[in-house]
Design goal:
280 residues, MetI-like fold, disordered N terminus, mainly alpha, 0% strand
């Protein structure tokens, strides 16, 4: 009898499958750029050089300079920090609030579910970008307010995913068995519902990271997000608008950075969804 062929594990496929490998590579590159990039460059993000304004890419400035002579590569590297900070903080904050709200709404049901979900429906009634614009316009343009606005946009999405998981899990046999053994409802919610609801929430969070980076760039482009002189990819695009004929690279490189970051997190989210699928 021939030996059975051993199938590669799902985690191994996560690393070796081309789509997921590309996502991991892009995300790892973004993390490396944000964490180690500022220590490796020879220029700072906010140091002007009026003798080298609008210089094209060269050996001295690999990605050229902007209208104030600031190194574009240094600003993109610092902008990666801003994008990651906004993405992680906004998704983390939304998860911190939306996870317990959704689990309690789905597990308890009744009027609790109705009240909590109607509040989430109010937030979902607004297009996400318009809601973020309204919040930042009301509170003022700053990095903390940008994080808060994007977290509010992400909140109802994560809350409804958590609620859906709680609704599905509370009817399963092992939950009934826990009740039969005398465990309280809150203990069951903590021990049984929460651990099994984390996988789809992790996938959704990775996708929201990508959309949060786009939203931050959009707000900064409109002047309602991260404010100069702090560089972000969005306000770099805003500054590039007036120089598209003279120095198109000012728009190319931050645009490519946004594209790469969003593509990486989306591919990673798809790969995690396949890996965490219980049918795999």
């Amino acid at each position: 009898m021939s030996a059975a062929v051993r199938q590669p594990s799902a985690w191994w496929r996560l690393v070796t499958e081309p789509r997921s490998a590309l996502g991991l590579l892009l995300v790892a590159g973004l993390l490396a750029m944000a964490l180690a990039g500022p220590m490796l460059g020879s220029y700072t993000a906010d140091a002007p050089d009026f003798l080298a304004t609008l210089a094209p890419p060269s050996a001295a400035h690999l990605l050229g300079t902007d209208d104030l002579g600031r190194d574009v590569l240094a600003r993109i590297v610092f902008g990666a920090r801003v994008s990651l900070l906004v993405g992680l903080a906004s998704v983390g904050g939304a998860l911190l609030v939306g996870l317990p709200l959704g689990l309690v709404a789905g597990f308890v049901g009744g009027w609790t579910d109705s009240v909590l979900m109607r509040c989430m429906d109010v937030l979902l009634a607004f297009p996400g970008i318009l809601l973020a614009l309204a919040i930042t316009a009301a509170l003022g343009s700053s990095l903390p307010n940008t994080v808060l606005a994007i977290a509010v946009v992400n909140l109802p999405v994560l809350a409804r995913v958590a609620r859906g998981q709680a609704l599905a899990l509370r009817r399963l046999d092992y939950v009934s068995a826990e009740r039969a053994l005398g465990f309280g409802e809150w203990t069951i919610l903590w021990r049984c519902i929460l651990p099994n609801a984390l996988s789809p929430l992790l996938v959704q969070a990775s996708v929201l990271l990508a959309s949060s980076i786009i939203t931050e760039a959009y707000l900064s482009f409109l002047g309602l997000g991260v404010q100069p002189p702090t560089p972000s990819w969005g306000n770099m695009l805003h500054d590039a608008v007036g120089f598209l004929d003279q120095a198109p690279w000012l728009a190319w490189f931050p645009g490519v950075a946004i594209f790469g970051a969003v593509l990486g997190f989306n591919l990673l989210g798809d790969a995690l969804r396949d890996r965490l699928d219980p049918r795999d």
